[in-house]
Structures are given as structure tokens and as C-alpha cells.
Amino acid sequence: MLLIPCPWCGPRDEAEFHYGGQAHVVYPDNPAVLSDSEWARYLFFRDNPKGPFAERWSHAAGCRRWFNVVRDTATNEIHAVYRVGETGPVNA
User: Fold this and answer.
1) How many other C-beta atoms are found inside a 10 Å radius of the C-beta of residue 53?
2) Is 29 exposed, middle or buried (0-12, 13-18, 19+ CB in 10 A)?
3) Of 20, 24, 58, 87, which residue is most buried, by most CB within 10 angstroms?
């Protein structure tokens, strides 16, 4: 069981959350001018590191808010949790 600390509700079981993918993915400035290849790269290509990785999570069964988690993909250890719009750890 993974215990995820929601910034608003505190630690909760992972079953209450939904994974939202990689954090800090910037939406294209002008998506209408992107080629199909560029649009596909934005939609489907994400980093897949072994180690600390910044992710988006939603507390679906609680406050229903989105937040960011820095989680080690090899060990599932959570290194940091911060609200969307806040500055996360420098090395995430």
C-alpha cells in the first residue's frame, strides 16, 4: 500500500487517488500551428526515468484537488508533495 500525503487532507491510501501523469508539462503556445507529429509528441511522449520523478495526482475520493508529488519510480518513496502553482524541489 502506498500512503500519499494530500496537501489538504493529509496522508491517505493510494486507492483514494488518480494518477495524472508527468507534472510540469507545458501546453503549447499555439497548438493550431503544430504538425501532427509535434502534437503527438506533446500528447503522448513523456519522460520515464528510474528515480525521482515529478507527477500529478488527484485526490479523487477526498478533496478532489490536483497536486504534485515527487516519487521515486524505483522504490515508490515519496520525496515531496506540493500544490499546483507552488515551486517544487529543485532536483525534481
Assistant:
1) 19
2) exposed
3) 58
Give the distance from CA 20 to its chain's centroid: 6
> Residue 70: left (phi > 0), alpha (psi -120 to 50), or beta?
beta
Side chain identity at 37, as an amino acid letter?
S
CA 85 to chain centroid, in Å, comes to 12
Give the three cell numbers for residue 47: 519522460
pLDDT digits (tens, 9 = 90+) for 33-70: 999 999 999 999 999 999 999 999 999 999 999 999 99
Terminal Cα-to-Cα distance of the chain (whole angstroms): 23
Reference 50, options 77, 26, 32; nearest CA is: 77
Cβ proximity of 59 and 69 under 8 Å:
no
